[in-house]
Design a protein that fits this description.
It is built from six helices and six strands. The chain is an alpha+beta fold. The strands form two sheets. The chain has a three-stranded antiparallel β-sheet with strand order 1-2-3. A three-stranded mixed β-sheet has the order 4-5-6. The protein has one domain: Roll (CBS-domain), CATH 3.10.580.10. The protein starts with 34 loop residues before the first helix and ends with a helix. Helices cover 32% and strands 17% of the residues. A hairpin with a 2-residue loop joins strand 5 and strand 6. The relative contact order is 0.15. Helix 1 packs antiparallel against helix 5.
Length: 178
């Protein structure tokens, strides 16, 4: 990065100019070079049209939760009590926490859910959501608006979005010709 104060050519990613000690961090912003990068940096979680959440209370049995997961073909259930998100139950929770536990089907989901799950807001960028998923190892994130649960997004939703953008950029695609 070239220092705006002294024009010294610093190593890319340097936080401070080697020559004049000028703070470079505010000037070293990522720049999108294609429509996928631009979308990740600028589009919000709301652009994915998050699905309405299917929720259960913490007192629901694990058997009820598994039936909902299978019937709705979804991978995670936000657990809500008095309108407040208190946990999330994922397929992974069922496999890792409940498998082999005697009588687990009758026990409440609160015994197996992940408490205080990470969330994203509708106005968070796609890159932020993707980073949360990657760094936390999550496949599903509840989406909130003013602290209230309004949806859920999955890594599959993000991948579908990116794949469509990339496909539209391929030579010969209808979108690339528009």
């Amino acid at each position: 990065m070239i220092c705006p104060s002294c024009n010294f050519n610093n190593v890319p990613g340097a936080d401070q100019c080697v020559n004049c000690q000028h703070d470079l961090a505010p000037h070293d912003r990522p720049v999108a070079i294609d429509r996928v990068q631009r979308s990740l940096m600028e589009d919000t979680v709301a652009s994915l049209c998050p699905r309405d959440p299917v929720t259960l209370p913490p007192s629901a049995s694990l058997a009820e939760a598994m039936a909902v997961l299978l019937d709705r073909n979804i991978g995670a259930l936000p657990i809500v009590e008095a309108g407040v998100l208190v946990g999330i139950l994922s397929e992974r929770d069922v496999l890792l926490e409940a498998a082999g536990v005697e009588g687990c089907n009758r026990r409440p989901v609160s015994d197996f859910m992940t408490r205080g799950p990470e969330t994203v807001r509708e106005n968070d960028t796609l890159a932020f959501a993707l980073h949360k998923m990657d760094s936390g190892g999550y496949r599903h994130l509840p989406v909130t608006r003013d602290g209230r649960l309004v949806g859920i997004v999955s890594v599959r939703d993000l991948m579908r979005h990116v794949t469509r953008l990339a496909a539209a950029s391929w030579p010969g695609s209808q979108a690339a010709e528009d």
